[in-house]
Amino acid sequence: MKLEACEVTKRYGNFLALNGATFQTGDAARVVALLGPSGGGKSTLLRVLGGLLLPESGEVRQDGLVLPHTEDGALKVLRQNGFVFQGYNLFPHLSALQNVTLPLTQVHGQTAQQAHERAVELLTRLGLAGHFHKRPAELSGGQQQRAAIARALAPKPRLLLLDEPTSALDPVMTGEVLDVIRELAEGGQQIVLATHEISFARKVADWVVFLANGRVEESCLTASFFNEPSSSLAKTYLTGLSKYR
């Protein structure tokens, strides 16, 4: 895939979350990691790239196609993508199985049987075969996040977007979820990942977009970013991360 952004701006009230963010990836980027300090704009850019947020100005392209700025147009893009958030966002009153089947029947037009088969397939694949009928409160954090990933994958999204998917997890659960993401990447799933898991990004991503203060400071191959960062902000960021690692 190729992702491009040109002078993208997005505000939350008086806060300028994206300030003319501009970048492009290589033509064959498969896993793109959005890196940078907290508050730098990673989550906002992720949502704009996936059609979840409309920018106030600027342009975003996926494989050369301009993402529409209308709500109806953005909804079409949104339905082609899958999202996973740090807070899981599962329906608390539904079972893991129902959390996956409900969007398939209500949004994507699948029959109950089709949705059931797809949900069973994915939950089993992600290690939740014995937990179909448990509600989120009965699952561990890692299990909840795997259920959320199953829900995002169920409609076979063109692009899977993950926003800090392990930030609320302990180290063991983090490892479980990162293993799932790595396996998806190795299987060919196109992924955009906003994360602070630097070691994971270095191993799995093939392209890095580094943001700070709402601007893209660097966009390059992963190896180039970690071995020869060109911006002073990226150098400072990496130095700070490596101090206790």
Task: Summarize this entry quickly.
This protein is of the alpha/beta class and 245 residues long.
Describe this structure in words.
With 245 residues, the protein is an alpha/beta fold. The chain folds into 2 domains: 3-80 and 159-242, P-loop containing nucleotide triphosphate hydrolases (Rossmann fold, 3-Layer(aba) Sandwich); 91-157, no CATH class. It is built from 9 helices and 10 strands. The chain has helices at residues 42-50, 71-78, 96-106, 112-125, 141-153, 171-186, 198-204, 222-227, 232-242; strands at residues 3-12, 15-24, 31-35, 57-62, 65-66, 81-85, 159-163, 191-194, 207-212, 215-221. A 6-stranded mixed sheet has the order 6-7-8-3-9-10, sandwiched between helices. The two termini are 32 Å apart. The mean pLDDT is 93.
The CATH topology of the largest domain is Rossmann fold
Supply the CATH class of the largest domain: Alpha Beta
The low-confidence parts are none
- The secondary-structure element order is EEEHEEHEHHHEHEHEEHH
Major sheet: 6 strands, mixed
